[in-house]
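Technical appendix A lists one of the benchmark inputs used to test multi-chain prediction within the project. The record comprises two sequence entries:
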Amino acid sequence: MSAPVVVIDHCSKWYGHVLGISDVSWKLGAGIVGLLGPNGAGKSTLMKLMAGLLTPSRGSLTVFGADPFDDVAVRRRIGYAPEHEKTWDELTALELVTVMAKLAGVPGDRAGKAAETAIDAMGMTEAMHRRVRGFSKGMRQRTKLATAIAHDPDFLLLDEPLTGVDPIARIDIIARIRALADAGKTIVVSSHVLYEIEALTSEIVVIYRGQVLAEGNVYEIRKLIDQHPHRIRIECDQPRVVAASLAMADHVARIVFERQGVLIETRDPDRCYDQIAATVIDSGVHVSALSSPDNNLGAVFEYLTGDGGRERE
Amino acid sequence: MSDERRIPSGLGTTATIAGLTWMRLVRGRALWVGTLIAVLPVLFAGAMRSVGEHTGGELFGIEVLILAVLAPMLVGASIGEEIEDRTTTYLWSRPVPRWAILAGKLVTLAPLAAVLVIASWIAASRIAWDSWPTVQTCVALGAGAITISLVSAGIATLAPRHGMALTIVYMLFFDFPLGILPATLRELSVAHQVRSLAGTSPIETGAAAAAIALAIIAGVWTLIAAVRVRRLEA
């Protein structure tokens, strides 16, 4: 078994009185790992610690056995694409990636070629002689990724690489990231969107309020919410009619009347939706809104943080 | 380690950052604004000459004032914005020594500040007096440009958001008044030492002593900048 790429041992990071991460212990091996958490959870803090941009307030963090903040050599093996968009907009994409390649140790006479290869890998060849200033969000993200891979690092840290990217570009970028993993690179990708992580990898780490809540296979973590009853909110003019039609169903765990409708907790959302549709058609109930508070990342975190997502009675 | 996996040297990093800084300078506005500022004493000299007024020593004083604005505008703004805009994440995540990043900016911007102010002084002198300025005064302005650039680098690493503005405030409201104090404290003033080095100060300390004082002031602020940059977190 190969040594872990990253070893985090009871690591905490504070920014003054603001907590970044708290007592995180984690070992990262080869492959793609998704770092999942809402905004402010500590994903970027963890990424920056691994990239050598921050030092732990407590505990330790090593990458390839060395402290990335103090050890210059280990950063040669790391490629980091930050979350923020700001770059040197006066440069062309090729110039930017070439400079980054040189600063990462690629010899000057080969840096240009390495930059072109990286830009091509990210599908930006046609725009490489254009200045970054005029790029769309998706083009900026691709350029950022190119800067991270130009020096052929072993370990990639991609902080929210799909933020603000249009759906078509998203599919393409996901495919390119997977190709990098297939080429043998260890990759950590952060996101606050579950389905983005699901498209990249089945191994995830869930982080919330600076703490790791769960790690492992994404399908097992997703099942946690599937095992927890789903909530469906129906805003309608006849909530008691809807409630009566569902009350005897074996998949219904709870029914709560709200001011403008009814909240159903069900263990089988598909059957529940079918029954609701039938009731609406048969009884002529006028439904003004139909939503599921559980079909989102917040519900996963509610469950994992122990809030349970239960409505107050 | 194979050639493809080498670590960039400090000098190599400095050269790359210098090239990057120059490229951004030429494509940005700072160079042109700096040039316009450097032209102001020339315009002043021309205006005085046109109305038949003799400028005397005021012109050199104006050049020192320009220096107090030009160097921070180039150096303080560049370093401060880099830290504030977080483009340092690209730089500091690379396997390069941080001092080399600072050095790369300084070797581009400090000499540029010196060239601009010296060129301004030469042009203004020619217009005002139809004569070339002395080498001593040019050297003094050049040394002053380098020193104020390093002061600006130090202040910008301490307070990146307002690096340029704070350096200008420091120069105008602390350094300049300090330089006219009838006390030993005036030796801490860059403006006073520049005038002493140029031989234009009424309270001269001697050119050699002035040069040493400027070197010490520059060294202290360089140390502040280097230590600060080494531990800054992105």
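The two ends of chain B are 29 Å apart (CA to CA). Chain B has a mean pLDDT of 92. Comparable benchmark entries are summarised in Table A2.
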